[in-house]
Amino acid sequence: MKQFKLKNLFIGAAAITALASCHKDKINPNDDKPIDPLTNKAGIYILNQGAFNANNSTLTYYNYANKQLIPDKFKTINGRGLGDTGNDIKIYGSKMYIVVNVSSTVEVADAKTAKSIKKLDLFDNTVARQPRSVAFYKNMALITSYDGTVAVLDTASLTVTKYIKVGRNPEQLVVANDKLYVANSGGLDFGNPDKTVSVVDLNTLTETKKITVGLNPVSIAADKYGDVYVISMGDFDKILPALTIINTTTDAVKKQSDLSAAYGTPIITSGDFAYFITADNKIQVFNVKTETLEKANFISDGTVVITPFGLKIDEETGELFVTDAKDYKSNGEIFAFDKTGKKEYSLTTGISPGAIAIVKK
Hints:
Layout: H1 14-20, E1 23-24, E2 41-48, E3 58-63, E4 68-70, H2 73-78, E5 86-92, E6 95-100, E7 105-110, E8 116-121, E9 123-124, E10 127-128, E11 131-137, E12 140-145, E13 149-154, E14 160-165, E15 170-176, E16 179-184, E17 196-201, E18 206-212, E19 217-222, E20 227-232, E21 242-247, E22 252-258, E23 268-270, E24 273-277, E25 283-287, E26 292-295, E27 308-313, E28 320-324, E29 331-337, E30 343-351, E31 353-360
Antiparallel strand pairs: 1-4, 2-3, 2-31, 3-4, 5-6, 6-7, 7-8, 9-10, 11-12, 12-13, 13-14, 15-16, 16-17, 17-18, 19-20, 20-21, 21-22, 23-24, 24-25, 25-26, 27-28, 28-29, 29-30
C-alpha cells in the first residue's frame, strides 16, 4: 500500500539458499480446521514492501501442496532481490507483474516459478517515474507512475509502447466498461492534493475526461453492476476520507459520503460486496448492490489483526486474506478467513506485507 508516501508517506549458492530459505510453516497452529482439499490454489504470493529506502522488498510464497513456506521466493529463484518498496503484484495469464516503487522497476516473472522473464526500468531519461499499480486489458499491462503517467506495456513483447498523461501522482487504477479509471492522488504535492479520477479510452489510449471525487483519491475498484468505487483520504485534518461511486455508463458521480478509512486502504470487490480497512483496524463490508453498509467488521471470531495492510479475495472459495504489517519494522503475518469471517490459518511474512497474488493449479 502506501508506506512510501512520506507524509501520508550467487548462482553457485542458489541450492544452499533455497534449502535455507524454505521451511514448513506452522499453518493453522491453534486451529484444527484443515485447508480445503478441493481448493484450486497452488500457492499464494505476498509482496512485502520492506522498509522505505532499505532495498529489502521480499516475496513470500506458500505452497499448498507441500505446506512449504519460502520467505523470499524471488531471491531464492533469481539470486537477487526485488529492490526498494514493492507496491503491487498481479498475475495475468502465465506471467506475474511486480511493481517496485522506489526502485522504479517492474519485474515480469513466471507466475508458477517466480523466475524472472524481464526487468523493466521505468525512467524518464534519468528521472525515476516511480511506478505504483498495475491493471490489465486485452494485451496490455497498464501501470501508473507518480510522474503523472500510465505506461502501456505490451504483454507479449514486454515493451512499453506509450505513456498516457493523467493526473498528479496516480495511485490505483481499474478497468471497467472498456475504460480505464485512474485515481489521481496528488499526494506528493503537500498541502495541495488532487481530487480527480482520469478516464482513459482504451481504444485510443488517451485521457478523455477527469471526474471530480473526494480529496486525495488513492484506492479504486469496480463492481459487477457497472460502478466504480473510489476511496479518497481527505486532508488528514478537516476533510474526512470519502467513498465516491461512479456510474461507468455516464461517468457521473452517483453518490459520495464520508467514511472511516485507514490511510491507503485498498478497496476490493467480490460479488455483491466491497471490502476495505477502517481507521480503527476493522475490515468493513459494503453491499454494492444496495449501496449500504453490510458489516461493520468482517472478522466474526474475535481474531485480532494489529495493523491490517492488504486485502485479497479468493473468488472460488470466498476466503478473505488480510495482511498484518504489525510495527512496519519486523516480520508481518497473513491471515486467511473463511467467508463467514472465521480464521482458518495464518502465515509469517516479511516486513510490511501488502499486495497478494493467488496462483491457481
